[in-house]
Amino acid sequence: MSRREGSLDPQADSSISPLPHLEAKIRQTHSLARLLTKYAEQLLQEYVQHQGDPFGRPGFSPPRLPVAGLSAPAPGHAGLPAPERLRLDAAALTALPPLLDVVRRRQAELNPRAPRLLLRLEEAARQARALGAAVEAVLAALGADETRGPRPEPAVVATNAAAAAPDAGVFPAKVLGLRVCGLYREWVSRTEGDLGQLVPGGPA
Amino acid sequence: MPAGRSGPAAQSARRPPLLLPLLLLCVLGAPRAGSGAHMAVISPQDPTLLIGSSLQATCSVHGDPPGATAEGLYWTLNGRRLAPELSRVLNTSTLALALANLNGSRQQSGDNLVCHARDGSILAGSCLYVGLPPEKPFNISCWSKNMKDLTCRWTPGAHGETFLHTNYSLKYKLRWYGQDNTCEEYHTVGPHSCHIPKDLALFTPYEIWVEATNRLGSARSDVLTLDILDVVTTDPPPDVHVSRVGGLEDQLSVRWVSPPALKDFLFQAKYQIRYRVEDSVDWKVVDDVSNQTSCRLAGLKPGTVYFVQVRCNPFGIYGSKKAGIWSEWSHPTAASTPRSERPGPGGGACEPRGGEPSSGPVRRELKQFLGWLKKHAYCSNLSFRLYDQWRAWMQKTHKTRNQDEGILPSGRRGTTRAFT
Questions:
Q1: Which residues are CB-neighbours of A93 under 8 A, at least 6 positions away?
Q2: For B85, which DSSP code?
Q3: Strand B138-145 relative to strand B232-233: parallel, antiparallel, unpaired?
Q4: Per the confidence metrics, is the pTM higher than 0.80?
Q5: Is A169 close to B107, i.e. CB distance below 8 A?
Q6: Separation CA A56–CA A48 (nearest Å)
Q7: Rounded to 10 degrees, what is the CA torsion of B150, B151, B155, B160?
Q8: Candidates A52, A64, A112; nearest CB to B112
Q9: ipTM above 0.85 for this complex
């Protein structure tokens, strides 16, 4: 792999060639991220459909409440070194499954006759875990996995669960679910972009 | 202002349970001014109401950001802005709303009532559940597959749509003793069905009923009492074979096997056959096939592909006096009748194999004629078998004549010769 912007090691020595399997791993993980980006978009569409108007309408802009333990990719994310970006991606993908589970449980009460939505939420949690593990495997292969991103504290996840609990208002629960599905889409898409820059022959 | 309540079954309005989400926001840090759904509180939160009732709601703005007042606030319901005349400012920080004659909820997750700031940003939301209590479910029907399980189906209350999620629960108990049990496997044969897979007693009646519950109330069906043995069905007969009957152009022979799961109990099984021409959707049903595993279809069109199906009714198991329940039809089996130049007859009926007379009108008359002949003309060796042999001979003769004379136009009959 030639030295270029976005290369895996900012101080890459051109005499060191990456293992062949690393390229394969990156390509594979990138393909997975691309597929999951499409699924995440479908999940979002399915979600807003079942919450009713104005969810899903153009211009609908509920407050972007912070979700405990997870935030959207920062504006400066793209400017970070590749390993740091991947670490943040992996951390976010690890934080997403319990949030998606919270949303699924609440939607099981609000929309019990929406099996496809509930299935997509369940699958999204599994997919996020799988992609997170794949990104961590890439980081390990790069030798850059020594520091892991922040994990949501159990208490913080519990707080999210409380916000979506049956006693909490239905409207805030709908908004929380929209936020989580949106974050899932943003992070999967971000991961696809970050891996795309590492794919040999991909965009610099 | 309290919400309008109507009907004894309507749930009471809940106090706004927004303290917990507010706590969440305090832990995380206050949002920017005017950016949070929790900058105001709607009361009531998530009320349940009867269709046609009224709702009085309020949107109370918090003191942050400073200067936030009720002026300029407005309401939307399911994304549609509500007319200003439905709202009024109660005080500097509270906007009230009065809705009358509410329609049923548009989605099961609740109608979205939202309070907006002047700039359109969302301050708070509440979900309305407007609907009807469930009506009594009815028309419960149940069947047991091979006496091993029980599946029941029912029709929801008379008007069906309640606009609210309505939960249906099938309950059952032994009539003379035992506790209530609840069926657990739902939607097995449609949206209003349930399957009880095991642990069912025979020779003793069960009581079965359905309970419907939603946010506005509940309803219970009448009780159905049945014995499992009276509602037995079985699998379709396997190994259905359809074949030609020699060269007879208007007949097909159908054979099948008794359903194996009940083979030791089917002393009085009834069968039905249905058949249709390949490119038709109209089935003809042969009803009178009792306790046999073969049948001959007659009066068919020559040179035609037929699809045939068979089903079984295992009535009378263990002395049950009830009718039993027909199985599903077997997979279609196809066969074709031999070709003929002559136009074939139209209808058909089932004939037992072995040349015995059937119930078809033509053959019935023939039977009578043969009977008369035997009596009056001393033709002791006349029989239907002989008649079928004659027909097969006629076909062969006709085909040979066609080959000698060239192909006849359709509809033209060849000369027949009496068979002596």
A1: A128, A129, A131, A132, A135, A187, A188, A191
A2: G
A3: parallel
A4: no
A5: no
A6: 5
A7: 120
A8: A52
A9: no
